[in-house]
């Protein structure tokens, strides 16, 4: 809740709800505070959203804007979420026990290679 941070986000002229969604998405460590890297990512996303009419906050943080040292955290968390979801679906009888992670790269893994086209906000 640093006043300087608040002022920088306010200058984006984005709705408060949008700024809150960006903040939550960029808070990789889920501390409800942004460290330096998370803050830079959030400002970057706000600038993109402010300058591209019709853009919306993505559901998943584009790994291409995440510093390398934090990418493993994100991928690990996503893998855990996928495993949990698959276990839940197996228990509900919706997936056969043999349906596990495929050997092909996921979209998140492919996004680890920086390409400007990987950053898309719709």
TrEMBL record:
Residues 14-49 form the EF-hand domain. GO terms for molecular function: calcium ion binding. Gene3D superfamilies: EF-hand. Residues 1-72 form the EH domain. It comes from the Eukaryota. Residues 70-122 are annotated as: Disordered. GO terms for cellular component: cytoplasm; plasma membrane. PROSITE patterns: EF_HAND_2, EH. Residues 82-91 have a biased composition (Low complexity). This is EH domain-containing protein. GO terms for biological process: endocytosis; endosomal transport. Pfam families: EH.
């Amino acid at each position: 809740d640093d006043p300087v941070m608040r002022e920088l986000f306010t200058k984006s002229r984005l709705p408060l709800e949008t700024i809150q969604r960006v903040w939550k998405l960029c808070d990789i460590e889920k501390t409800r505070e942004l460290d330096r890297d998370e803050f830079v990512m959030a400002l970057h996303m706000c600038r993109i959203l402010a300058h591209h009419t019709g853009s919306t906050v993505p559901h998943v943080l584009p790994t291409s804007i995440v510093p390398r040292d934090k990418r493993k955290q994100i991928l690990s968390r996503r893998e855990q979420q996928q495993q949990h979801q698959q276990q839940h679906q197996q228990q509900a009888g919706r997936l056969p026990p043999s349906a596990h992670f495929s050997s092909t790269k996921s979209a998140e893994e492919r996004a680890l290679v920086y390409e400007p086209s990987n950053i898309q906000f719709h």
